[in-house]
Records
---
Amino acid sequence: MQKVRVESNRENDGSSIEPKLRQLTFAEITNLIAEKRILGEGGFGTVYHCCMNGAEVAVKVLKVFPAQETKDFQAEVKILATVYHRNLTRILGYCNEGVNKAIIFELIENGNLKHHLSERNSNVLSWEVRLSILLGTAEDFGLSRIFDFESAGLSSRIVGTPGYLDPEYIHPRLLTEKVDVYSFGVVMLVVITGRTTVVEGATHITQWVSEKVTNGDIRGMVDPRLERNYNVNVAWRVVELAMACVSSNSSSRPNMSYVVRELKECLPSSNDAAGIALTTSNMRSVFRPHTR
């Protein structure tokens, strides 16, 4: 996993957020998002493409944020302000006004994975690039575990995009590594199939793929836009790995170190994988897992 550089500010007592960041009023945020250029929506809120001081930025406006959780928000923004990693977008500013919360990020021009998998995008990601993206994500798995969220004042409540949360977590609210493994498995299925988490009306992608697996229909499972430009045996191996990650029995799910090893073996060669990774290194997303 790539190392993350962390700069701490021990003198900050938590009453204010990283002073280098720009703090905006909610009125200023409202003006920024006036054009309603939506980049995406999820469980956390809506992300807008905006222009601030002549620079293009992404503004994430959170859904109604309970006033009593303000300390959580402050702690999270402080952490985001001190973390530097190639797969995390840089935070530029924030709004912390009562229940109104927003975070301003740098805009990554290459877009996000959702955009590149969209049917509206004429540039279809090759099978090798898809595997490279999955491998890079798997290797960066656990970035959040580098930090001591409890000492930073963060609770363990998870806000995520519907369709990616482990059903086993939703009810008892027991957060374990295997909950994250499930979410990664769903991401794998989305990347393999080119589909959203809900397929053909109201069928969750895990169920849809499971039926294809039962019928031995790998061609009907893999994104048809790839036009069969992939190794069928490798495709089966990746699908089986993804299905292991989303197993209804959390104890039978693999750990991420195993997932990384399997994905590495599925790539053509280490040299090819390195070249592919370079072409996708800037495809960072403002829709990364959101923990608070």
---
Amino acid sequence: MIYLTDFDNPLEALPPSKKIKVRITKLLNRPPVYLTAEEKWILIGTLLNLFGANFDWEKLDLFLIWGQKDLDHLKLIQKLVNAISGAQSRAYYDDSECVWRLEYS
């Protein structure tokens, strides 16, 4: 049983995984027309996370892991994500992490 101690911000009392689930559920219960670009970005990040990408919930960065550097593939994904979310992202290969990265901006 979870007891909420902070009634101004009840999500603070929840563990991180539960906070994410509550946040996503709230977004899914709202009509898409009322979602902001950032909220759409979060939903896209969640979807891609389910298919193997890593989504950083704090920075809203999306990490894609491929075996080769394929800039054309990355640019296509970036255009699709931007078109769906209405946001502009920055896409690049992060040599230090050896991953493709999409940053919300």
---
Amino acid sequence: MEEDEFQYQEHVCFERNGLMLDCSRNAVFTVEKVKFLIRTLAKLGMNVLMLYTEDTYEVEGQPYFGAYRGKYTKDEIKELDAYASMFGVELVPCIQTLAHLYNALKWPGMDKIRDSADILQPEKKETYQFIEKLLSSVKENFSTNRVHLGMDEAVMLGLGNYLKENGYKKGSLIIREHCNRVVDICRKLELKPMIWSDMYITANSTGGYYDLPENTDCSKWEHVYKISISVYTGNQNYSHRMVLVSFFAVTNQLQLHYRI
């Protein structure tokens, strides 16, 4: 090597690095824009793109999904998945299976599975039939077996229709049982789930503890709570790995398209 030449190498600290793209703010990025982002991620050495879609993806039997908001069709997701694979990028579905479903639950006929405005009602057969439809769409259209189930910010869990029909029950118990049932559906469909940490762990921050279902990852994010770090580090019972999320969310502003 000549004296004025040099080499520089970078090594990533994580096996997976990438972007979570917010596609649930009343519009979705065009397919071409997502392809541009995929190429950009590949140039930056990243290998994951998560599509955060609350009700902005096509689901059989759910005509109101994405209504007046925009959504990706099954064919569009398959196209993006194949394109991402060409560049070594894993396209991962990030959906919601508990809260953040206001735009899906506001329509006629959804009252049977609605706890409160944006939260599904746990422990109802119809709720898990609905969730299985969501996960079946994921299974059909993405080549990865990984799926993010959401389950964050369900602060009113069990305090709406659930409370009227069943009486009061601790939120930590409800979410544990709900998570177990949703993960069972994932096992049936051969999907590997992950959830957000904020509800599952902070709900038990006063001393209660419930382990996650086997083979379920927990993605760490939260608002600023006054909770001792020992909640995360001091409880030796936590046998499932906490995934420190290095993704960053981008809310789409330009180059949008709608499905009206």
